[in-house]
Amino acid sequence: MSVKFGTSGLRGLSTDLVGSVSALYATAFARHMLASGGLKTGSPVVIGRDFRPSSPEIASTIMAALKRVGLEPIDCGTISTPALALYGASIGAAGIMVTGSHIPADRNGIKFYRPDGEVDKVDEEAITRLASDLAADPEANRVEAGAGQDHETEATKLFIDRNLGILPPDALKGKRIGIYQHSSVARDMLVTVFEQCGATVFPLGRSEQFIPVDTEAVSPDTVTQLARWTDELALDAVLSTDGDGDRPLVADEHGVPLRGDLLGLITARFLGASVVATPVTSNSGLEMDGGFDVRRTRVGSPFVIAAMNDALAAGKTGVLGFEANGGLMLGSDIRIGSKAIKALPTRDSFLPALAVLGTAAERGLSLSALVEDFSLPVALSDRLENYASERSASLMAHLRNSPEQLAAFLAPLGAVKTVSDIDGLRVTLADSRVIHFRPSGNAPEMRCYVEAADKESAASLLRQGLSLLEGWKV
Q: Which element (helix H / strand E) includes 205?
């Protein structure tokens, strides 16, 4: 099998996940939860899916597998991942979301949830072991169509209700907001929530074909389309998400996307956070600009959630986490005015979008002016797709082998000052520019992150970094 757990859930080719593999991993998850006491026979498990062509069949196979093990599948339909997780927590149910998030439709994935939140790395290891043990078991691999009680309406309403009241009534009155709907499962909920906040909403770009939108590396074609919409419709912002609705895309009045870690910073201030957990890939200026305790982690929601849990165990309040892709995880219950928001320790795209637009409106600023108010280094990122895992592993091994080899590889960029290998290799150069190489944990991709004092320097460094990656031969 070519499927494996990455930074967020199980991932693999759609052709590999359709069929017995999805039955096998659903069975392994169910047996792990039953053995650990997280579920008992007859317990409900909520199931959701995105709009990828392969997702309905995978979800159906999973529901049949859960039924065979003695659990009760609850079908929440095509729904965002945070909405599924919230509904599962509200009824004490485990959950399974069928989604490949932002990656192309020829790939897919499965995210697993305990009743108290995402599975952690220990759970993933246990599920992987059980799947290996059950690989030859015909019952665990049986493929049949399954179904569950339909709770899509209830789950959708609960999530919409959570987001209404975060901003004051008519907080966005007079604002013209585009919703780039594409193939996101959050597309209709976004329209509902922002209309209720008083904005004039323009649904845009709805697609019946799956479009892989990566909020951390927005494609040039998408940026061009966002700029065209803002110009033609005189929009104050364009909002969107990735495929499963857990990562936000917020573009300003010129169609320029705001970085996810800036969305996280603004949201942390909006919520009055005291502790923020975030990966090493988030902007290095957070420690100076945030006014909260920053806990750095490896890339991936399980690591951010683990850091949040450590803070909560130490008695901290006002705990949240976010990733450079913009997904925000709420570790603590938080009150905004009269609105009480329950903790939701999984990535959410709605709260960051509401916080940023609400902050800009309250301060009477455009989004571009709000961005200018922050003194963060200019940070950019991009990726090389179809970068084989053998190639990225060979490169990382070469760079880690000796300081001399790393220095020689980076010589065209400048001298090395400091190195961090929390996740990938993050190098601060002698002139204080930063470049970070990291193989993706979810797909055959190589990511490059850079920071510099100005946009021109950052863009130049990013081009040079990608060129170095392209030139590497195994």
A: strand 200-206
Q: In 3D, which of 92, 87, 96, 89 has the Cα closest to residue 69?
A: 96
pLDDT in tens, 443-455: 789 999 999 999 9
- CA–CA distance, 226 with 211 (Å, rounded to integer): 15
Strands (E), 92-196: 94-98, 107-114, 117-118, 149-150, 176-182
Nearest-angstrom CA–CA distance, 62 and 391? 34
Assess whether pLDDT exceeds 70 at residue 389: yes
Calculate mean pLDDT across residues 144-155: 97
Question: What pLDDT digit, counting tens, does each position of 276-334 carry?
Answer: 999 999 998 898 876 899 999 998 889 999 999 999 999 999 999 999 899 999 999 99
**CB contact at 8 A, 400 and 425:** yes
CA atoms of 92 and 107, how far apart (whole Å) = 30
- Does residue 180 come out as left (phi exceeding 0), alpha (psi in the -120 to 50 range) or beta? beta
Return the structure tokens found at 462: 């990013």
Catalytic residues: 101
CA distance 68 to 61: 11
